[in-house]
């Protein structure tokens, strides 16, 4: 019998940051999310929730036997324009609530307006709080930046600040992940020796969607690079498609919005 983790859908499952960032999220929806994260075919890499729900996710996963599933949470989200002191305090509180990983929105509006972003200082300060045991993913909002030169600048500033991952999108913009933006991000990651990870989020609904980006990363860095330490997919609807692939069931039309 084939190990589910060695199938195409199983490999993507292991890279999934199962995400719920909806206005009505609460204790029960977070518990349900954590239950979904522990599938019959293996665990996802992480669940991603609002800061106020990080402690619920951590406690629930521990109770259900999912201690290896990371808890990610978003800060400076979704606008990316909060004052430095406010962002730092938000990151501090979110880590104290039990988050293992912080998904931090880069100040893309300032970059787009041609202003000094202050991004390196912001990211460096937040990475200092995260330390060596908590990953910092920097959300660039590439669909809003759009121009390759702006995306490249954002990548370089995020890496200079100490980002562990570059992330495409909040999932709340009109344009989210695109292959064109991811190619620029991978080029920036290659400049630093492939040490920084990539998280693709926004608009991923099917295994085929994820495989587009998996292939781009594999072509640049090789199959050995494709692991949760280097590549993540942030989504909710994607899990439904992966489970259908793994179970061989007919695929429902997903109504999930991320």
Automatic annotation (TrEMBL):
What highest taxon heads this organism's lineage?
Bacteria
Would you kindly state one Gene Ontology biological process term found in this protein's UniProt entry? deoxyribonucleotide catabolic process
Record-linked Gene3D superfamilies: Aldolase class I
Query: Which pathway does the database say it acts in?
Result: Carbohydrate degradation; 2-deoxy-D-ribose 1-phosphate degradation; D-glyceraldehyde 3-phosphate and acetaldehyde from 2-deoxy-alpha-D-ribose 1-phosphate: step 2/2
Q: Which CDD domains does its entry note?
A: DeoC
Q: Name one GO molecular function term.
A: deoxyribose-phosphate aldolase activity
Entries under NCBIfam families matching the protein: deoC
Question: What is this protein called in UniProt?
Answer: Deoxyribose-phosphate aldolase
List the top taxonomic levels of the source. Answer: Bacteria, Pseudomonadati, Pseudomonadota, Gammaproteobacteria, Pseudomonadales
